[in-house]
């Protein structure tokens, strides 16, 4: 295995050398400014806590594993591909952000079933002018750091992309066009006479819906589960992530970090490329 170390800062040589000793690595290779590869490394119980304490993201990666081995990357949208929770920002237009954000956080921790939490949150938006959605997109929606680097590398390696979200089609459709994503799937807010009704149209995309859509696209592309990477941050991403050969917890809740193949706690989305790049 290679032990990949990456951070948003210079990693002191003493820390790299300490991790090399812990992992009995054969060699230390500095790949980039904040990126190291420790070859022929072995698992050690102290590595996880040491890296977290020093704000280093790490991953044990089979030395022959490459980004080009995969055919599909499936991403959550809110707080994964983008930096905001769209529904919280929509609620802010109604002066209801604290109430909605509290329900969002509870759902992401797995304390409330997602579909029920979404119904509760959307109900609070009843009567809001649909123009508020465009304002959120124009004024508040930002990609998370490293997103464009990651997407460019995926395209270069012929890896397809699926954005699947418990959020809303209004945003996924615009991101699909803007970023050149291959597939998107999300919920549709019901709008009548230019106003949100407080309801979601059709079947809610919940945790199982995300997993089902991953498998639908995977089968359409003729891929095996081990050729899929799934990325998410909240409890409603866990079923989807369990269907992928590699799962990435991105700045995620503890319950997600514990179950993922790898956790990116500090670096940007391009950390995926650093883990699995040549």
TrEMBL record:
The reaction(s) this protein catalyses: O-phospho-L-serine + H2O = L-serine + phosphate; O-phospho-D-serine + H2O = D-serine + phosphate
Top-rank taxon, per record: Bacteria
Active-site residues from the entry: 76, 78
Residue span(s) of domain DUF4072: 3-47
UniProt keywords, alphabetically: Amino-acid biosynthesis, Hydrolase, Magnesium, Metal-binding, Serine biosynthesis
Enzyme class at the top of the EC tree: hydrolase
EC code: 3.1.3.3
UniProt cofactor(s): Mg(2+)
Gene Ontology cellular-component terms listed: cytoplasm
InterPro entries in alphabetical order: DUF4072, HAD-like_SerB, HAD-like_sf, HAD_sf, PSP
An example molecular function term from Gene Ontology annotations: L-phosphoserine phosphatase activity
GO biological process terms on file: L-serine biosynthetic process
Annotated metabolic or biological route of this protein: Amino-acid biosynthesis; L-serine biosynthesis; L-serine from 3-phospho-D-glycerate: step 3/3
Similarity section: Belongs to the HAD-like hydrolase superfamily. SerB family.
Name assigned to this protein: Phosphoserine phosphatase
Species this protein is from: Sideroxydans lithotrophicus (strain ES-1)
């Amino acid at each position: 295995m290679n032990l990949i170390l990456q951070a948003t800062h210079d990693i002191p040589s003493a820390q790299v050398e300490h991790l090399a000793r812990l992992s009995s690595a054969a060699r230390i290779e500095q790949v980039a400014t904040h990126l190291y590869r420790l070859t022929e490394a072995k698992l050690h119980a102290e590595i996880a806590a040491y890296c977290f304490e020093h704000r280093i993201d790490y991953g044990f990666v089979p030395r022959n594993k490459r980004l080009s081995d995969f055919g599909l990357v499936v991403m959550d949208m809110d707080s994964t591909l983008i930096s905001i929770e769209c529904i919280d920002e929509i609620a802010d237009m109604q002066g209801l952000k604290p109430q909605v954000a509290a329900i969002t956080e509870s759902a992401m921790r797995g304390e409330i079933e997602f579909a029920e939490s979404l119904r509760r949150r959307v109900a609070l938006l009843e009567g809001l002018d649909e123009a508020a959605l465009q304002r959120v997109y124009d004024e508040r929606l930002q990609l998370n750091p490293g997103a464009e680097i990651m997407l460019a590398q995926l395209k270069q390696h012929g890896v397809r992309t699926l954005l699947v979200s418990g959020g809303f089609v209004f945003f996924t459709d615009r991101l699909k066009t803007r970023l050149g994503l291959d597939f998107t799937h999300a919920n549709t807010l019901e709008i009548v006479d230019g106003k949100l009704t407080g309801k979601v149209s059709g079947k809610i995309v919940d945790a199982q819906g995300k997993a089902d859509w991953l498998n639908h696209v995977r089968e359409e592309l003729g891929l095996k589960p081990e050729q899929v990477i799934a990325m998410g941050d909240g409890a409603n991403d866990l079923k989807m992530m369990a269907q992928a050969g590699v799962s990435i917890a991105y700045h995620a809740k503890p319950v997600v970090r514990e179950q993922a193949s790898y956790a990116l706690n500090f670096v940007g989305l391009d950390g995926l490329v650093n883990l699995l790049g040549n």
